[in-house]
Every structure is written in C-alpha cells, then in structure tokens.
Amino acid sequence: MVEAQPRSVRIVITGLGLLTPLGIGVDDFWEGLRTGRSGVRRVKGFDVSDIPSQIAGDVQGFEPRQYVSAKDVRRITRATQFAVAAAQHALQDAGLEVTDDRRDQIGVLIANGGNSPVETERLVLDLHQGGYDRMNPFHIAGSLPNMPSSHVAIHFGLNGFISTISTACAASSQAIGEAAHVIRRGDARWMLAGGTEAPIGRYCLAGFSALRALSTRNDDPGGASRPFDAGRDGFVLSEGVGVVLLERLEDAEARGARIYAELVGYGSSSDAHHITAPDPAGRGAARAMQRALSSAGMGIDSIDYINAHATSTAVGDSAETLAIKTVFGERAYQIPVSSTKSMTGHMTSAAGAVEAAACILALTHGVLPPTINYEQPDPVCDLDYVPNQARQADVRVAMSNSFGFGGVNSVLILQRMGADGRTRGAGSG
User: Fold this and answer.
1) 339 in Cβ contact with 228 (< 8 Å)
2) Inter-axis angle of helices 351-365 and 171-184, nearest 10
3) Distance between CA atoms of 319 and 409, rounded to whole angstroms?
4) By CB count within 10 A, which of 71, 90, 98, 420 is most buried?
5) How far does Cα 89 stand from its chain's mean position?
6) Is the pTM of this model over 0.90?
7) What are the pLDDT digits (tens) for 128-147?
8) Selected catalytic residue, list 89, 151, 309, 381
C-alpha cells in the first residue's frame, strides 16, 4: 500500500496512449486535429443498406497481434485489445518500466460501456444458426465491462488497484478524475486511466439510428459530424481508446519524466432529468463545470480553452452552450470552444479520455483544434467555436467537458506545467 497523500499533492500526466479514427498513436491523432481531418467514413465491413445511418469512425490499420497473443486475438474483444494497446503506448510514452518493485503500485481504471456488442451480435447469430456447439466458452466472462481493465492488468502483470467506470459518454473523464483520487488516498502510485469502446456493428448502428441520434448524411461522411452548426442532424458513432498515465508530480520529477500537463480540477454531477436527453437549460453540465473550477481553486478568468462535449445533436449542443454561458457569463464569448468530435465522431465511453488528450496537446503545442464542418451559424449557439481552422493560442489552462446518457456530467481541468509559477497544487484533481 502506498502511503495516503494530502489533497495538496499535485497529479500530472506523463503518458498518452491513443487509437482513434484519426490514426494510431499521439502523432497521427494530433496531426489529424491540427489539419482538421475527418476520420469518418462510409461503413464497408457489413451490410448497412437497411440502416438509416451508414457512416462511422473506425480505427484503421490496427493489428492486434502487435499487442496481444494470437490466442487472445480470438478470445478477447476488440475494445479490450484496444485497451491493452493504448496502455502499452501510454507506458512507453511515459518511460515507465513495469518492474517487480512497481507492479503492486500501478493501478488500472479503464472505462467501458458495452465491451462486446459486435462480438455478442455475431455469437447470437452463430448460436441461432449453428446451435450450442457454436458457443464461445470465453464470451460471457470476456464481455464484462471490467475486462479491458482486467486484461491490461493481466497483460502487464499489474497487481495494484483495479476498477471500471461505466457511465456512458462521461465514463473515461470520470475514470481520469477518480484515478487521481486513487493516487491521493494511497491505493496506487501510478494509474493507467481512460476508456475504450468498439461499437461499430449492425446492432449498435441500428439501435442508435432507431433512437434517432445518428447523422444520416451518408453521402458526405467527412461532413456529417458538425457540432454547433445549424445543419447538424445527429452524432457519428465511432470506436477508439484513450489511456493516460497519471502520477504524483514529485515522482515524475524524481524519475526525470516528460510531463505533459497537470490535472488540477475535476467535477461531476447528475442532471436527474432524462435517460438520453440533457437538461435543455444545461444546469447539470454547469454544476459539473463549477465544481471542477472550485476543485482547481480557479475562477472563470483562468480558462483559456474549452473542449466541448458537443456531439452534433440539436439539443445537446445548445444545452452545452447555455451551460457555458451560465458558468462564465459574458466571458463565455471570449473563450475559444471547439468540438474535436467534428473530426473523430463520438467514441462514447472513450470520448472523454481522447478529448482530455486533445486538451493536453493543445496546451503542449499552443494550438487550438478546430470545429470542422461549421458552415451555418445557429443563433442558439453563438460562441467562438474555432471554426474550420486550427488556431495558434497561448493556452495555459483547458477545460474538457463530457456528458453521458443518464444525465452524467464530468469535467476535467488541465494546466500546462509552469503556467502559473505555482510551487504547490491547489486542485483536488
């Protein structure tokens, strides 16, 4: 057991692991954001002729055998394979070697919503067509939401804290925020935290289409995800994974690690309104943002950039705009706000971690990722959405918003190291 840490202990991020529709690894992801490239494509791997939404954001070029054994390729889900791959990238990026004296001090908290929709769909068809003998004996256990975390721990031999959060589209932001608390209370010294999702199959496309949540701009896949634009008609379903490595600032400095950013604020709340629709006034989202600011010990003047949850739905984007105005007042019009989902689509449980990484890279490079496909301003959405082109900016502090089905809201605040000259942290992370 690691000794419990006081609230003033500073938590930093030293490693990133990303597999997204923009590519594999940090460099591909950032290049895609910086250039405003869309990762949304027409679905080709299965029949979508009878489904209203026929587009998705998939991870191309992923070779699972580079990360897991041939046996595990057959036995574990694509979402779990993603998690193992991203954890490996994050550990390597952080320069953290898993040694015998560290194994019981490294924890895992990887969010997941539906670990095996595609595999379950395939197996149910096999069962109906071929009977019991077609049943995969590993499927039931392997499809549990905690399997991505568990397989990461098994793969790397990590004996520390382990858990899973499953709060829909807010899950991986919550995983990062809660992972900081795990370190502070002494249950781990390092935490691999984030989220993974691989939902692209007939079942999920049909289900979200029936919910009328997805864009049907099938003839223009790259232009389908258009947050805040007056012509938005729904989100684009995507797959992907984001994992970060968190640790205490003093540990990172002691081992000479490259530090991306400090996690200074974390807030969460419930709308208590509806299972799919947000509170149209954005009250729950505003509470989460206010709590994140309070935990960081910051005022509204501290935030230089907001990475919006904005999925490209009519109600969601307008509610988030109202929430930002509620929290920031007139200053809302001075803060650049962009939605990287315009390029990646919506990775559901993985979205928050990937978007936290977008904030971290914006802090690192001094560049704001754009909201692409912004063509028709919506009078209800009237903030600065960094339309269509990336923008150079002195970004010191960034806020990342994540809002999920069931009315779950989660907000992270990340700060560039040395941005305020502090010698000790004020945030609760």
Assistant:
1) yes
2) 70
3) 12
4) 90
5) 16
6) yes
7) 888 888 888 888 888 889 99
8) 309
CB 38 within 8 A of CB 341: no
Cβ-count burial of 232 within 10 angstroms (0-12 exposed, 13-18 middle, 19+ buried)?
Answer: buried
Residue 309 annotated as catalytic: yes
**Hey, is 42 helix, strand or coil?**
strand
Please pick, among 89, 204, 346, 381, the residue that the annotation labels catalytic: 346
Cα separation of 136 and 20, whole Å? 28
Tokens describing residue 343: 């390029």
Which residue from 394, 5, 42, 388 is spatially nearest to 185, judged by alpha carbons?
A: 5
CA angle at residue 346 from 381 to 148, to 5 degrees? 145
Please state, in angstroms and as integers, the Cα–Cα distance from residue 225 to each residue in 70, 217, 238, 261, following that order. Answer: 36, 9, 11, 29
User: Active-site residue 365, yes or no?
Assistant: no
Cα–Cα distance for residue pair 110/195, rounded to 1 Å: 5
Active-site residue flag, 346: yes
User: Pick the catalytic residue: 169, 204, 359, 381?
Assistant: 169
